[in-house]
Design a protein that fits this description.
- α6 packs antiparallel against α7, α11 packs parallel to α21 and α29 packs across α31.
- Strands 1, 4, 5, 6, 7, 9, 10, 11, 12, 13 and 14 form an 11-stranded mixed beta sheet that branches. This protein has a 3-stranded antiparallel beta sheet with strand order 8-17-18.
- About 40% of the residues lie in helices and about 10% in strands.
- The chain is α+β, with helices and mostly antiparallel strands.
- The protein has 4 domains: about 210 residues, no CATH class; about 60 residues; about 90 residues, no CATH class; about 300 residues, no CATH class.
- It is built from 36 helices and 21 strands.
- The two termini are about 15 Å apart.
- It is a single-pass membrane protein.
- It holds the Pfam family LicD.
- It is found in: Membrane.
Length: about 850
């Protein structure tokens, strides 16, 4: 449960020791920064943006006038108890209708005879009794709130780790004495949940201030500095410099200042990429310094140069700081409904923060958020600062407001193919059709792909559709490049490191360092998989866990502990939907199932525009896309399976194809007579038959399957959440890894069938002899490692259920509800460090997870 220290500096967002000229003092100059950050210039298009209205409404001189215009007691009640108010409104409408009906009865009562009058009065009394009973049912079915303030004062689930750490509190409120002595120190901790929390708060304020629904053209400003810890990436490593000087000539000792104020040439000299033309094509010396950027260079794109790790951190951080474009959209997953019945897609306007300045992590703006919260929850400042914000409460409140006001565009998750433009909308699950995961049938139409037909259709759609126009423009550029060179340029780049292969598991833009603990890496992969599967299930994207990750699922429903990433497969139809509607979308997972771990980071969907071509080419674009953890750069690889009519003509017949028709090809090829081509010809004929029968489907790396193998997809769980797998999973794994299912040892690991876990022999030395050869089936309790025991406590109920489902195999009768998913099965490093600061022991932290 140990973790890698997270860097924190006292004045994280204050530039050089608090001398940030772009952050104004609180007081009369309060809105100087806001004019800069939100582009309040002479351009009228940006003077009246929603965010500007929101920020302007916090001016103390205006006394929150914009919001107050809509404020009354009823609206405060909606804010405190939104769902209860919906029940009240329903009840009020029912009785208004009854009252109107009653008046009509009395108007006609004189026309009746005495007996009819008696019957009428009896009928009225019965209606009143039924109505009162109906009202009682409605009130009893509403959420149970003890009083008006209880919802706001008490989080839905309250532990010390639920509280979001607010930066520079000691500077915002220097006159307040905090009982917690750790307040000052914790305020320097980078809590990744802060920005997702503020995003929910902004949506709430917008709904109240604008008296209605979120419109389709609603959008937000964006800054990467709000979402990732750029301070850590851009911190100069002086220890590395000392080591470098120790082995280099003394002529550099007098140039230490120049070695710290890096330009491109000095960077290349220090970090091992001298003479690399590709590096220098992406590194430019700055003509004038950038605000809050300590170096003399900028990075404009990826490089294949191998860079020493401290330099890689500076490379990625500088690109995020200077040239990384914002995402197209932000997808707030499971933010609507008690059990995540819907998600909100919000458009991002890149023009609203052209200078890429921090928005949320800005002292003045954060203080305005705090004051808005205090006003609407009717708390005093000290009480709020003690309890703070937590995601679960903000999510519940946002859901209630969305339920009351709504969103201008609402679609069912079964209609996601109709998304054809960049806009804000609410996607709602069709609970009658998609609330449960059952056996699913995949068909030929899910895989068929015609490149020419697609390009013709896209060219027509690009005329009116902004997203399709961007994709078509990029594909046109790729085609021109391919005509000249014969292949597509590489799109997805990794953080290639000097003298190490570890960087290949990290996206180059979000690289935060390779020297992380195994536990920490597994917790990142754990959350990455859970978010991907939730997102796909919600949007009817057909996907399954593949390759080594599938092998991990078969064993215990978890990833293999030595895997550096996750492999998933999608159908070609689903990949096309991802590329055209969700490319460059950042997902924030607000699932209530994750408790205080919810909304821990963002995940960027990045689809390779070369996906339209199903030819392997030079092999640099066999990955169709990635889902990337923006906090670390660890990713999930996405590849699609397609049926294309010219596949066998365009590919070389390799071992992978031959094993599809003869799983024992590697053995049988040696029994064929020397010079006898009959065996190979037979295999080729069988492949042609599969192609003609429209059975042969493939990815760009020539991994092949038959449609029959994937025609029936069975419901299960992976990393604790619902997932689909091919019914022929054992046949597929045998073809890919012939001996893997019978091996109990891999690398330095041994699989314990009693604990249902892969255990590292260095954690459990008694599992092996003096030569590190593992014993077969050691007795329960052989390993007394605390880390292993804790992992067993977290996973044993889940893995036991998983093994039981595999042994039972009653797939047709499984109907998996969302509430059957597991709580997080891994302890995140952030909470290890956070709990240590709070004085929470390892045992207490484990109890919080359990």
């Amino acid at each position: 449960m140990s973790g890698r220290p997270i860097h924190h500096s006292k004045n994280r967002w204050n530039g050089d020791h608090g001398k940030n000229k772009n952050v104004s003092n609180i007081g009369s100059e309060m809105f100087v920064t806001h004019d800069d950050v939100f582009q309040r210039s002479n351009n009228e298009n940006y003077k009246n943006t929603d965010f500007n209205k929101f920020i302007k409404s916090f001016d103390y001189s205006d006394n929150l006038t914009n919001i107050d215009e809509y404020d009354d007691n009823d609206d405060d009640d909606f804010f405190h108890k939104p769902e209860e108010s919906i029940y009240k409104e329903l009840t009020r409408n029912t009785f208004n209708s009854f009252h109107k009906h009653l008046k009509n009865l009395f108007k006609n009562i004189t026309k009746f005879k005495s007996i009819n009058i008696t019957i009428t009065f009896i009928f009225i009394i019965l209606i009143m009794i039924i109505s009162l009973f109906y009202k009682r049912i409605l009130v009893s079915s509403s959420p149970n709130f003890t009083n008006e303030l209880s919802f706001m004062d008490q989080p839905i689930d309250n532990t010390p780790l639920h509280k979001i750490i607010m930066p520079f509190i000691d500077e915002l409120y220097p006159d307040i004495t905090f009982e917690d002595e750790l307040m000052d120190e914790l305020s320097d901790f980078f809590d990744p949940r802060l920005t997702p929390a503020m995003l929910l708060l902004y949506i709430q304020s917008h709904l109240l201030a604008n008296k209605g629904k979120l419109k389709k053209d609603f959008n937000i400003a964006f800054s990467w500095e709000d979402w990732v810890d750029l301070d850590q990436r851009l911190e100069y490593d002086n220890e590395y410099l000392v080591d470098w000087l120790a082995v280099h000539s003394n002529e550099f000792l007098n140039n230490i200042e120049n070695l710290q104020n890096l330009d491109c040439k000095t960077f290349a000299m220090l970090y091992g990429c001298e003479g690399n033309k590709n590096f220098f094509s992406k590194c430019n010396d700055l003509k004038r310094p950038l605000p809050n950027h300590p170096f003399k260079f900028e990075i404009t794109g990826p490089t294949d140069a191998k860079i020493r790790e401290p330099g890689r951190l500076l490379y990625s951080g500088t690109y995020l700081k200077t040239h990384m474009p914002p995402p197209e959209q932000i997808y707030l997953l499971d933010v609507f409904g008690d059990n995540g019945e819907g998600s909100l897609m919000i458009s991002v306007d890149p023009k609203r923060n052209l200078e890429q300045k921090p928005i949320i992590r800005n002292r003045d703006i954060l203080k305005q958020f705090i004051n808005w919260e205090i006003k609407h929850t009717k708390k005093d400042l000290k009480t709020f600062l003690k309890t703070g914000w937590n995601i679960e409460t903000l999510r519940f409140r946002t859901s209630g407001l969305l339920n009351k006001f709504g969103v201008e565009k609402i679609i069912r998750n079964t209609d996601h193919k109709s998304i054809n433009e960049k806009e804000t909308y609410l996607a709602v699950k069709d609970l009658k059709k998609g609330g449960q995961m059952k056996v699913s049938s995949w068909k030929f139409d899910d895989f068929v792909w015609d490149e020419e037909e697609f390009l013709n259709e896209l060219s027509l759609s690009a005329v009116t559709n902004e997203l399709d126009n961007k994709l078509y423009t990029e594909i046109d550029r790729l085609e021109k490049f391919r005509i000249q060179s014969g292949y597509h340029p590489k799109y997805l780049y990794e953080a290639q490191l000097y003298g190490s292969s570890l960087g290949s598991h990290y996206d180059w833009r979000f690289f935060q360092g390779s020297l992380i603990t195994n536990d920490y890496r597994q917790s990142i992969i754990h959350k990455l998989a859970r978010t991907w599967l939730r997102f796909c299930f919600e949007n009817n994207l057909k996907t399954f866990i593949a390759y080594g990750s599938m092998l991990g699922w078969i064993r215990n429903g978890l990833t293999l502990p030595w895997d550096g990433d996750i492999d998933v497969i999608v159908t070609m139809e689903s990949l096309n939907l991802l590329a055209r509607n969700f490319n460059q979308t950042m997902i924030i997972d607000y699932s209530s199932k994750d408790g205080f771990q919810t909304a821990m980071t963002g995940y960027l969907i990045d689809i390779n525009p070369a996906y339209y071509s199903r030819i392997k080419g030079d092999g640099n674009n066999v990955i169709d896309g990635r889902l990337i953890d923006i906090s670390t750069g660890i990713y999930l690889d996405i590849t699609a399976l397609a049926w294309s009519k010219n596949y066998l003509k365009e590919t070389s017949i390799n071992k992978k194809l031959k094993k599809l028709v003869d799983k024992d090809f590697e053995i049988n090829q040696y029994f064929a007579l020397e010079g006898d081509d009959v065996y190979i010809e037979t295999l080729m004929d069988q492949l042609k038959v599969l192609q003609e029968e429209k059975q042969l489907i493939h990815c760009k790396n020539d991994n092949v399957y038959t449609i029959d193998e994937l025609s029936i997809m069975i419901p299960s769980y992976f990393e604790g959440v619902r997932a689909y797998f091919p019914h022929d999973y054992e046949k597929i794994i045998w073809r890919l890894y012939p001996k893997a299912l019978t091996r109990v040892t891999e690398l330095d690991y041994v699989f314990d069938h009693k604990l249902r876990l892969w255990l590292n022999l260095y954690d459990c030395p008694d599992y092996a002899d003096e030569n590190m050869i593992a014993y077969f089936d050691p007795p329960f309790g052989t390993c007394n490692c605390t880390k292993v025991i804790d992992e067993y406590k977290l996973t044993h109920a889940y893995t036991e259920r998983h093994i039981g489902m595999l042994e039972e195999g009653d797939w047709l009768n499984y109907e998996l509800d969302e509430n059957t998913e597991s709580k997080p099965l891994r302890i995140d490093e952030f909470f290890v460090l956070y709990s240590a600061r709070l004085g929470i022991s390892d045992e207490e932290l484990l109890d919080l997870y359990l």
